[in-house]
Amino acid sequence: MNRKYLGDSYDAVKRMWRDMFVDWAPLYAAPRFIPNDLQSEFTLLTRIPIFFGRPEGPFSIFNDPDTGVRLPDEANQSEGRTHITVHTIAGQVHNGASCVITFDQSNYRNKGMQLGDQRSTKMLSLAENGCHSFYYVSHAPFLFAAANASVILTIRTILTNAGIPNNKLKGLDGNI
């Protein structure tokens, strides 16, 4: 999260996710992506509190890297505020998050892969790490990950019941 982007249309989508998940598994933002001086403004705007310690009851984690999810085969798997790895997302799922939502606008043009193939590669890597996943594909794309297929179905139902069209939700086999 960069101050110059605070308040853009992507933040409205983040608030929408928060509102959709509040009754099922409330959303908490991973603090490493939100600078300390922006955390209160981020929470005010999106209504997503910062994740400090495991909350009681079901919860979901929101990752907001500046760029997105690294391709699994990248030699440089460093993380910071700009990127997150599939391995880290899988760890969040396996450490108790009902769902992990990650902003992912990354597009590696030098890899010779179309954007859809890049997304499939990330979902395949999550599957290899014991997670199920799908993308919300829009101008603000997000990767959704969970521990099993039934939870993914629940998440999909939450989104479609809120009016998200099925054609915006892309799993490994196309629409989910």
Can you put this structure into words, describing what you see?
- The chain is α/β, with parallel strands linked by helices.
- The protein is built from five helices and nine strands, in the order H-E-H-E-E-E-H-E-H-E-E-H-E-E.
- The protein has one domain (3-175): 3-Layer(aba) Sandwich (Rossmann fold).
- It is 32% helix and 18% strand.
- A seven-stranded mixed β-sheet has the order 1-2-5-7-6-8-9, with helices on both faces. The protein has a two-stranded parallel sheet with strand order 3-4.
- The longest helix has 14 residues, at 115-128.
- The protein is globular.
- The model has no long low-confidence stretch (mean pLDDT 89).
List keywords for this structure.
single chain, 176 residues, alpha/beta, Rossmann fold, 7-stranded mixed sheet, two-stranded parallel sheet, globular
Distance between the termini: 29 Å
Helical content stands at 25-40%
What's the number of helices? Answer: 5
Structural class per helix/strand content?
A: alpha/beta
Strand-residue fraction?
Answer: 15-25%
What is the strand arrangement across the widest sheet? 1-2-5-7-6-8-9
What value does the Rg take, in angstroms?
Answer: 15 Å
Strand tally = 9
Instruction: Let me know the largest β-sheet.
Output: 7 strands, mixed
CATH architecture label name: 3-Layer(aba) Sandwich
Count of individual domains? 1
What name is given to the CATH topology?
Rossmann fold
Poorly predicted regions are none
Mean pLDDT: 89
CATH C-level name: Alpha Beta
Order of helices and strands: HEHEEEHEHEEHEE
Shape type: globular
